[in-house]
């Protein structure tokens, strides 16, 4: 594997035009595999089947992720209260952190803690903000106790909540760098009315090491916003779209409709809008051209997509050993290796005469 910077931290890796590749998308992938419930989306798999979480971390590193993200997304107090398992909060967080640390330390990758939108933040209600800050604080403190290299705070619809998360990380995070990403909806501004470029600049000025966007939009509708963010920010910027074919008609994955039934495709019918691997290649090249330094994929991702991103960003992860090579295919391959009987005749047969 190609880990020439394996002992350095997030900031060192991002210096001098460096980049960081980041696998996300654990929630949707565990739901798809039958170990997580769509709806509340709580990462119960951490306690129910920890070995599978460890395995997914390893698979993502094999595919080229430079970061192992502790699976505590929606593992916060409000979500656990919702499913009546608040008593498991500390155990779930500590176990998720221990699993991620184990894989990160074994592979020379970065070990990241994770906090996210609280779902109860209200910009007009101070009391809700106090409650949200306390939720962030306990998760940040567990992350620091377990020795994280960075904390990723993500999927905030409002810059106000993102700034609050950053403030908590800066107060209780013992100096670990923060990556803060906003979650774009259909408008080109946050839910509290700030254009994304400006919102990211505010986060950068407030001390986030990396700022940007993740989730909700697919690559094609996230890229235009990244161009604005690149212009507005001086430091490293992050892009982690959902892996669905959003468009000018349906800017977010929540607005996509099933092409056969016309019904809302989110969440369980989204596979009919899955990106192709070529879409992801185009996405990663666009990010490189814009100057996205922290690149990844969010909901709908799995390791074969991430490998493409890693390769376009110059990595040769373990999974590259098995990257497609159609020259060896008996029908579609190198014509000098295979007879015309296969490369012409059988293709015509497969296509239908
Ligand atoms: Zn997502």
UniProtKB/TrEMBL annotation:
Zn(2+) binds at residues 215, 298-299. Pathway: Amino-acid biosynthesis; L-methionine biosynthesis via de novo pathway. Its cofactor is Zn(2+). It holds the Pfam family S-methyl_trans. Residues 8-313 form the Hcy-binding domain. InterPro entries: BHMT-like (IPR017226), HCY_dom (IPR003726), HCY_dom_sf (IPR036589). This is Betaine--homocysteine S-methyltransferase 1. The lineage of its organism: Eukaryota, Metazoa, Spiralia, Lophotrochozoa, Mollusca.
């Amino acid at each position: 594997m190609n880990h020439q910077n394996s002992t350095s931290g997030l900031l060192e890796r991002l210096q001098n035009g460096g980049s960081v590749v980041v696998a996300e998308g654990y929630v949707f992938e565990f739901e798809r595999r039958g170990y997580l419930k769509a709806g509340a989306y709580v990462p119960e798999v951490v306690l129910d089947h920890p070995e599978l979480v460890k395995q997914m971390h390893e698979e993502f590193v094999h595919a080229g992720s430079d970061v192992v993200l502790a699976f505590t997304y929606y593992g916060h107090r409000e979500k656990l209260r919702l499913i009546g398992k608040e008593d498991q909060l500390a155990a779930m967080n500590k176990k998720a952190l221990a699993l991620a640390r184990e894989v990160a330390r074994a592979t020379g990758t970065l070990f990241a803690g994770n906090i996210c939108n609280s779902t109860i933040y209200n910009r007009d209600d101070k009391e809700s903000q106090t409650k949200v800050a306390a939720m962030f604080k306990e998760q940040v403190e567990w992350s620091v106790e377990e020795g994280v290299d960075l904390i990723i705070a993500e999927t905030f619809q409002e810059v106000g909540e993102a700034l609050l998360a950053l403030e908590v990380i800066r107060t209780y995070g013992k100096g670990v760098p923060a990556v803060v990403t906003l979650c774009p909806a259909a408008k080109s501004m946050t839910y509290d009315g700030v254009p994304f470029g400006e919102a990211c600049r505010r986060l950068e000025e407030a001390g986030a090491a990396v700022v940007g966007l993740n989730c909700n939009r697919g690559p094609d509708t996230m890229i235009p916003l990244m161009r604005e963010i690149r212009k507005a920010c001086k430091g490293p910027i992050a892009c982690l779209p959902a892996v669905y074919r959003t468009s000018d008609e349906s800017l977010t994955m929540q607005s996509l409709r099933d092409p056969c039934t016309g019904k809302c495709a989110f969440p369980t019918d989204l596979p009919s809008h899955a990106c192709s691997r070529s879409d992801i290649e185009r996405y990663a090249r666009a990010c490189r051209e814009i100057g996205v330094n922290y690149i990844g994929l969010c909901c709908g991702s799995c390791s074969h997509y991430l490998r493409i991103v890693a390769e376009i960003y110059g990595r040769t992860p373990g999974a590259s050993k098995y990257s497609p090579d159609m020259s060896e295919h008996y029908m579609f391959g190198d014509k000098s290796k295979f007879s015309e009987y296969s490369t012409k005749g059988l293709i015509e047969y497969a296509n239908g005469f």
